[in-house]
Design goal:
The complex is a heterohexamer, with two copies of chain A, two copies of chain B and two copies of chain C. In chain A, about 30% of the residues lie in helices and about 20% in strands. By secondary structure, chain A is α/β, with parallel strands linked by helices. In chain A, helix 2 links the parallel strand 2 and strand 3. In chain C, about 30% of the residues lie in helices and about 25% in strands. The chains are: A alpha/beta, B alpha/beta, C alpha/beta.
Chain lengths: ~120, ~150, ~100, ~120, ~100, ~150
């Protein structure tokens, strides 16, 4: 986890399902902008945000861009780990996330630490 | 069957506008198919019309003429305009909801001394009476909420 | 017979409760947009709308977009033409959002 | 409760707190428009919507119009009864509503009937 | 020490749960907009943020607008100048909405 | 102390824009009071500046030049414009979020072949880099969410 205070580490929290509104897309845009400016960045998926990580998304027929494909590109931009709230998965009965994503499951204590280690938190 | 449609969410911020568009398209297609296909299933043997589509609350943003989605994304604003032209639909934007949120036609621009306007001419501004009337004159009002 | 449409995920519990209060056994439900995440639930709770409604449908385009296939056999996938047809077959349509 | 099918009775459901967003105000605008066109109209307050009925609202300092004052004017426009979900009050520990409003408390069965008696339901 | 701001009513339970997961005993909370309805609660539950946070404040203008007076003695009414001051005194500010 | 402010909700649909406006006003007032009142309480003994106010997601609608609230209602759009003029604030509207939602300045209008435009000249369109930079250069980012 990035923890260099001079760099003002950013935590982006995704708590919205994809496609139903612009949150997932506009969160990703901010993540890409942050990494373009070489900011220390962590990304957490929690609540309905974990739906962004389901495999086999195919939004062609609702004429949207595939957000999962865009998430898969994050490592190219230097975002090496995506933190995923284990409890949110359990509550939703989700056992299978996309295998190509660099996922790290986190528990309640680790999530609290992510918030406390960040200088700024953006929630979507 | 006579439908009216109520749209309460803005493009991007909500799926309401897109889902309403798809519903309208399907209702009008069903109507169209009907006149050409006598063997159509019994379930589809009804002619549908859309009396009016009313845009209220954040739904009014669908009537923007100035929105420009990226070229590789679906342009829902343009799609509504095209659907209106094709079927001569009555697309009504609530005037009170729109003026306070910044969507105005040339007439309102004059009235409020604004030099610019931003509403598509495929939509018309009118009052909530148009929604009440649509409800009275339609068999069903289908709402698409935020 | 009422057709209910629902466009929010199960996380919006207050909304599901309101629908559960109103729905009757012969009513139908269409899941659209984020409402389709309800297809991940197995619910035999007869005080919950999912355990009450005679017929629950989910829009196929919205399911596919989100990587869901309805493995809940009680939920039937439909397209927008079916949505229009069901709207005309039911007495009225109530949207929950 | 209005139940004349030719008149297409309308049910307006208020489930949003006032001031935080436009729902309460824009619901009221629709209620006034409906009564101006002499439509059969019922109004139900449920969930956070019951907060619209709290006494002593004083929104001058957030530069908003007093929505409670506007609700009090509804009888002038022919809306004689405001249906209020008893359970929503209980859950929120609300014991006191504005005394000048023509309130009728309703239970779960009566709420279901309101929905079934309406031809069209508008929710805010 | 973190300053948390909360602008939604207790009906948004998922939001309160998220905040409860993150908050620590020396953190502070400002209730604004519909968040001020939390002042109607009495909560001694030490797993809920209202039972955890050292100091909970509510914006007076938002309370007054909604007909609320904080009869919860644990909640202090503040104005926007206090909001600014608390923002600078805390290490960071996290908004819950 | 250097603040930046992030606004994510539209006027009317959310309290975000109004609360952000009040916060900004209070931060700037505290600063102003400070220079005139040496006996100010210890709690206020800091000079505050607002580096930038960034409007993202539905927050972009605050920058509309065409919105006209009823005359007996507070005009939040005008209030932002006045605050900008008074304090020479840097009000930045996210270009990507705004263009897809229908808020554009004269430059974007030209670029997209639109005959009209609707953004207040008190705001400027720019990219998300301006938010990232604001975060790097400010002591606190205060977010006002939908």
């Amino acid at each position: 986890m990035p923890n260099d205070n001079k760099q003002k580490p950013i935590l982006i929290v995704n708590q919205s399902a994809p496609y139903g509104n612009a949150n997932a897309k506009e969160s990703l845009d901010l993540a890409l902008a942050s990494s373009a400016f070489e900011q220390a960045l962590s990304i957490l998926f929690t609540g309905d945000g974990i739906y962004q990580l389901l495999p086999k998304q195919s939004p062609d027929d609702i004429q949207s861009k595939n957000l999962l494909q865009m998430l898969k590109a994050l490592p190219i931009y230097g975002v090496e780990q995506l933190y995923v709230d284990q409890q949110s998965l359990t509550e939703r009965g989700i056992t299978e996330l996309d295998t190509q994503l660099p996922i790290v499951l986190v528990n309640s204590v680790e999530i609290s630490r992510l918030y406390h280690d960040a200088q700024t938190v953006f929630r979507f | 069957m006579i439908f009216s449609v109520l749209v309460l969410g803005a493009p991007y911020s909500s799926g309401a506008s897109y889902s309403a568009y798809r519903f309208a398209q399907a209702a009008l297609d069903a109507d169209h198919n009907e006149s050409h296909n006598k063997n159509h299933s019994a379930n589809h043997n009804e002619c549908h019309t859309i009396h009016r589509i009313f845009f209220y609350q954040d739904g009014i943003h669908s009537s923007s003429q100035l929105a420009t989605p990226p070229q590789d994304e679906f342009n829902l604003y343009q799609a509504w305009q095209d659907l209106q032209s094709t079927y001569d639909l009555d697309l009504v934007t609530c005037i009170a909801a729109a003026v306070r949120r910044g969507v105005i036609d040339s007439g309102e621009a004059k009235r409020h001394n604004k030099l610019q306007h931003n509403m598509s001419t495929n939509f018309s501004l009118s009052g909530l009476g148009q929604l009440v009337e649509a409800n009275a004159l339609s068999d069903r009002v289908i709402t698409f909420g935020r | 017979m009422i057709l209910h449409t629902l466009n929010k995920s199960p996380s919006n519990e207050a909304l599901s409760e309101q629908l559960s209060q109103v729905i009757q056994a012969d009513d139908q439900v269409i899941l659209l947009e984020d409402g389709v995440y309800h297809s991940l639930l197995e619910n035999n709770d007869t005080s919950h709308w999912l355990g009450i409604a005679a017929h629950v449908h989910a829009l196929n385009d919205d399911l596919k977009a989100r990587g869901l296939t309805s493995n809940n056999s009680a939920i039937k996938t439909i397209d927008y033409a079916d949505f229009v047809r069901l709207s005309s077959e039911c007495d009225k349509v109530i949207a929950w959002y």
